[in-house]
Amino acid sequence: MEEKYGGDVLAGPGGGSGGLGPVDVPSARLTKYIVLLCVTKVLKAVGLFESYDLLKVVHIVQFIFILKLGTAFFMVLFQKPFSSGKSITKRQWIKIFKHAVAGCIISLLWFFGLTLCGPLRTLLLFEHSDIVVISLLSVLFTSSGGGPAKTRGAAFFIIAVICLLLFDNDDLMAKMAEHPEGHHDSALTHMLYTAIAFLGVADHKGGVLLLVLALCCKVGFHTASRKLSIDVGGTKRLQALSHIVSVLLLCPWVIVLSVTTESKVESWFSLIMPFTTVVFFVMILDFYVDSICSVKMEVSKCARYGSFPIFISALLFGNFWTHPITDQLRAINKAAHQESTEHVLSGGVVVSAIFFILSANILSSPSKRGQKGTLIGYSPEGTPLYNFMGDAFQHSSQSVPRFIKESLKQILEENDSRQIFYFLCLNLLFTFVELFYGVLTNSLGLISDGFHMLFDCSALVMGLFAALMSRWKATRIFSYGYGRIEILSGFINGLFLVVIAFFVFMESVARLIDPPELDTHMLTLQKIEGLISYRDPHFWRHSANIVAGTIHIQVTSDVLEQRIVQQVTGILKDAGVNNLTIQVEKEAYFQHMSGLSTGFHDVLAMTKQMESMKYYKDGTYIM
């Protein structure tokens, strides 16, 4: 009886309920492949850290050329692409050429992002499986993204990238930069740095955006290469031929660079072992182990088991890579390894790594069907038959843009929620202006007030969605409806305020101990209430102790002139101006001047006539 009605009768994919599926391989047989995959990912992290050290002394094009050359040598030796399989046609050679060009461009973006962000952040951003990125894009841009779990994974991925962009304290590299803008080692490096500078962001933040772009290009590149790999006789043969063509493409460029640029390498012989390590760990071992594990396991399991060790090892190596013990263990020469503290480990990176691990685990998991079913009868053999509602659950999920669109539609239907939404947009505008100016001037007051307004906006957003959810109908699980969710949203808003108050308090204590330098010149406009603008500022020094000045201030009509004069005088006196003349101008002043504009031209003509008169010493004049 137990054998007839055992768990295998109802077990679906992954061991859950949901109909028939592929027979799972026993976990004991997969253990050796999982261990091999984890070890390979750790070694790949080691190889990428070694690559970052090599790129300090080797030009990026020369580095990619050596990597392609070493990979082509090993793959030709193992795969024998010219002697095995059917012959390659002319049309296929053209496609392989395009494949090699695209591969070189992606490698260039990848390793240039490595030089900007460092190995830790490069591993966190670039080492994601294709299935993770495809799941992310399907959640964001399709209506069948895989349910709430996939949406949560996509949100974690986006939060991780935002943490690297906004909360990663990695500006030490910018302070230690050896290249002034406009002067670089080569024309290629100059063009890439110019493109980053055009975005108006720091180098490491531009590197984050560059690596995200390279990741999307890599996934599209792999997807487009599948048909070509089938035509030429497999992925391994395609990779071998593509690397050979890449070497031929890069060879003239490397020769020109070797002749026209000065090399930083003292001895190429000392770099043989590091380059061999990088080629084997980053290119050869990772490619073959991924191919083997993809055959023995599901692709989703390979992505899930491979992401965790590479992210954890990246964090560990990021903390200990510059330690003296690791310097002794590494094979690279001492000249390339001077003491370095750029791209250090920060709290933003740790938080980002946690979110990347969570998102990779969720997005690489197969879409789960409904696990509960309804008994609809028995088969002739007596086996119970269930109706599972997995498809219904899948079709009910929505993409993020569609969910936002429908939520906005419901918000704008009600008058109260519509007014709150308009106030939210206005409040967000002032919030970002205040945060931008606070960061620009290094003013903790503006930054803290900006974050306070930001959490006010988050409270408004949460209140709006709580109001929407409170209108939902009661379900079997929540039989009393969702009316109490508004109270829960108020509690969460209170927790947010406690969190931001804690961070403001810690920053205040740090600034009390070590006060930063404030840009008071740019803060002048923010300190005067009612100020619209100013014009014609003139300041000059009469003597060593006397600095005089005049300025015109335009203010709103409801402020007191005496108060404006006192505030402006106090601010400029702190700046060293001790003899000041201020003209306060309101709208009534300009209206009065416009009323006098009819006689202004007559006065101007008379003034010019007086200036043209010539006087004698006795006081008489002639025209």
UniProtKB/TrEMBL annotation:
Main location: membrane
Pfam families in UniProt: Cation_efflux
Domain Cation efflux protein transmembrane: 420-525
GO BP annotation list: intracellular zinc ion homeostasis; zinc ion import into Golgi lumen
Compartment(s) where it occurs, according to its Swiss-Prot or TrEMBL record: Cytoplasmic vesicle, COPII-coated vesicle membrane; Cytoplasmic vesicle, Secretory vesicle membrane; Golgi apparatus, Golgi stack membrane; Golgi apparatus, trans-Golgi network membrane
Keyword Ribonucleoprotein appears in the UniProt entry: no
GO terms under cellular component: ER to Golgi transport vesicle membrane; Golgi cisterna membrane
Listed transmembrane segments: 57-78, 99-116, 122-142, 149-167, 187-217, 238-256, 268-290, 302-323, 343-363, 420-439, 451-470, 482-506
The UniProt record lists the keyword Zinc: yes
Keywords from the UniProt entry: Antiport, Cytoplasmic vesicle, Golgi apparatus, Ion transport, Membrane, Metal-binding, Transmembrane, Transmembrane helix, Transport, Zinc, Zinc transport
Gene Ontology molecular-function annotations: antiporter activity; metal ion binding; zinc ion transmembrane transporter activity
Catalyzed reactions per annotation: Zn(2+)(in) + 2 H(+)(out) = Zn(2+)(out) + 2 H(+)(in)
InterPro entries registered for this protein in UniProt: Cation_efflux, Cation_efflux_TM, Cation_efflux_TMD_sf, Msc2-like
Recorded topology in the membrane: Multi-pass membrane protein
SUPFAM superfamilies referenced in this protein's UniProt entry, alphabetically: Cation efflux protein transmembrane domain-like
Coiled coil stretches, renumbered: none
Quaternary structure (record): Heterodimer with SLC30A6/ZNT6; form a functional zinc ion transmembrane transporter.
Family (UniProt): Belongs to the cation diffusion facilitator (CDF) transporter (TC 2.A.4) family. SLC30A subfamily.
Function of the molecule: Functions as a zinc transporter.
UniProt-listed PANTHER family: PROTON-COUPLED ZINC ANTIPORTER SLC30A5, PTHR45755
Record protein name field: Zinc transporter
Species for this entry: Tursiops truncatus (Atlantic bottle-nosed dolphin)
Origin organism lineage: Eukaryota, Metazoa, Chordata, Craniata, Vertebrata
